[in-house]
Amino acid sequence: MPVRPKKSLGQHFLKDENIARKIVNSLQYDQSTSILEVGPGTGVLSKYLFSLGVNVDLIEIDKESCEYLIREFPDRSGAIHHGDFLKDDITALLVKPAAVIGNFPYNISSQIFFRILENRQVINQVVCMIQKEVADRVRAPHGSKTYGILSVLLQAWYDIEYLFRVPPQVFDPPPKVQSAVIRLKRNRRTDLGCGEDIFFKVVKSAFNHRRKTLRNSLKSHFRLPITAHEYFSLRPEQLSVAQFIELASLLEDQ
Description:
Elements: E1 13-14, H1 17-25, E2 34-38, H2 46-50, E3 55-60, H3 63-72, E4 80-82, E5 98-103, H4 109-118, E6 123-131, H5 132-138, H6 149-157, E7 158-166, E8 171-172, E9 179-186, H7 196-207, H8 214-218, H9 241-252
Parallel strand pairs: 2-3, 2-5, 3-4, 5-6
Antiparallel strand pairs: 1-8, 6-9, 7-9
Helix pairs in contact: 4-6, 7-9
């Protein structure tokens, strides 16, 4: 029997087969879908993904885990890639329409989401298990205390669904936090109507000083219009995604 890899990189390995099947069944796919699993670990999701009959690739940063996966799935060795999803060139693994799935390591889940945003033109869907606190933040509506940078940036390009909660006891080792599975599906927005760099900068600058009004948080980064605008008297959590896009367009014209 192959030796299981050691726990590393902040990862908690899922051991409940019913939950694993439920996560994989949350994917909405057809025969043209290309699936990339991020951080497969011991392959608890992988075996169900490989049974779907579509193109599936795995990317795993831990060498020991890769060796284990190759022993477990010898006929799929060509689909198992030793690499870093955050840093490596992954364009060859993302064939549109691509879906990303995984039990994301909790300490780098935000970085994974930013990487997904960079490749949003080909990643049409994401199904992932993450810390419940992060799941709540990602799907938070404007006006919420948990609404922030990730909320705005992800919701600008994806519709986000909260699917189900996952208890700590189904992991090895059990995490000290609650977990949740969410699904992101690419929305119909193809263009912001303003520069993406400006939009990202406005959102990040605003939430880096979330207790300040937008006028005070943005004035050191942008030339503000002479004419007063109602948004500048508000705090960032009060603006919807559409209003942030409108604000970025306004500042781009200055």
